[in-house]
Design goal:
The protein is globular and about 70 Å long. It is of the alpha/beta class. The longest helix is centred in the last third of the chain and has 17 residues. It folds into two domains: about 180 residues, 3-Layer(aba) Sandwich (Rossmann fold), CATH 3.40.50; about 100 residues, Helicase, Ruva Protein, domain 3, CATH 1.10.8.80. A hairpin with a 2-residue loop joins strand 6 and strand 7. The strands form four sheets. The protein has a five-stranded parallel beta sheet. It starts with a helix and ends in a 7-residue tail after the last helix. The chain has 14 helices and eleven strands. Helices cover about 45% and strands about 15% of the residues. Helix 2 packs across helix 11, helix 8 crosses helix 11 and helix 9 crosses helix 11. Belongs to the MoxR family. Keywords: ATP-binding, Nucleotide-binding. It comes from Thiomicrorhabdus sediminis. This is MoxR family ATPase.
Length: about 325
């Protein structure tokens, strides 16, 4: 079985556990294929945590869930030096960050000090503590969940940390038919627990790293490259494209957004079974790549603009290459 087929088999089995979140499952697998961190946002109860746990089980990766709370300290996440009473030496005890897939649950409930501690791990895949720098696992990946910022007890994530997330996925409530299926599955599980779906491991970290090499080799024409750069560059000169957009953004996207879009579109096309990237692949991934990187100004918000509506307008304004 090819690696692409293995990923499709994994998705099919994940769908037996997660109802009605096909787009979410696709994006989580894109994160696996690129090594890019993911931020999942939505109200409680939408299976964000369950989806990440199930994916980690399906990949047979080392997994740790960290519940972020206002009293969490950096050492609780990264690890700390502990005194050995027998030898008198300080030994470093690794924290939960030293796993291949880390679920940072309700990440925006932790104070800024903890958010800052995460920055090095997410950016460099390493942790510095006790005067030493320690490497994180090769497949290290942070999948974080956050509640909407208007809820009580939340802290906005720093812009520098937000930029380290490759994708920002916003989840909506399930359809009525999906919610009906959720009720039926829950009832069946309560009546006969042996019927509960048990997710098996269909991939290994080695499979994932091999697939990442395949994704890097996806063909991207010069026209599609210029299209990606044009979309990102347009966020810095909105007023020149459309006078109605003058001043709606405080900050546009950096070149890191272009890199993230390149990786995400490549993985998306690979999952479709192609070996080349099209403009449609770029458009499909643009909202999740840009959503958290655009800072809408006060004036923009007053006019009714938000990140998603600006991205939709960008897609309309930037010409799609015909020779891609």
């Amino acid at each position: 079985m090819s690696t692409q087929a293995e990923f499709q088999t994994l998705k099919q089995h994940l769908q037996q556990v997660i109802v009605g979140q096909e787009t979410l499952l696709d994006k989580l697998m894109i994160a696996l294929l690129t090594g890019g961190h993911v931020l999942l946002e939505g109200p409680p109860g939408l299976a964000k945590t369950t989806a990440v746990k199930t994916l980690a089980t399906g990949v047979h990766a080392s997994f740790q869930r960290i519940q972020f709370t206002p009293d969490l300290m950096p050492g609780d996440v990264m690890g700390s030096e502990v005194l050995d009473v027998n030898s008198g030496a300080l030994n470093f005890v690794k924290g939960p960050i030293f796993n291949e897939i880390v679920l940072a649950d309700e990440i925006n409930r932790a104070p800024p000090k903890v958010q800052s501690a995460l920055l090095e791990a997410m950016a460099e895949k390493q942790v510095t503590a006790g005067g030493q720098t320690r490497a994180l696992p090769e497949m290290f990946l942070v999948m974080a969940t956050q509640n909407p910022l208007e809820q009580n007890g939340t802290y906005p994530l720093p812009e520098a940390q937000l930029d380290r997330f490759m994708l920002h996925i916003v989840l909506n409530y399930p359809t009525e038919s999906d919610e009906l299926e959720i009720l039926r599955r829950d009832r069946a599980a309560q009546m006969q627990t042996k019927q509960k779906v048990k997710t098996e491991a269909f991939l290994t970290p080695e499979n994932v790293m091999h697939a990442r090499q395949s994704v890097v080799q996806q063909h991207i024409s010069e026209a599609v490259e210029k299209y990606m750069v044009g979309l990102i560059a347009a966020t810095r000169q909105l007023g020149e494209l459309d006078s109605q957009l003058e001043g709606v953004l405080e900050v546009g996207a950096s070149p890191r957004a272009s890199i993230a879009l390149l990786h995400a579109a490549s993985a998306y096309s690979w999952l479709q079974g192609r070996d080349y990237v099209t403009p449609d692949d770029v458009i499909a991934m643009l909202p999740d790549v840009l959503r958290h990187r655009l800072i809408v100004s006060f004036s923009g918000r007053a006019q009714g603009w938000n990140a998603d509506s600006i991205i939709s307008r960008l897609i309309d304004l930037v010409s799609v290459p015909l020779d891609a």
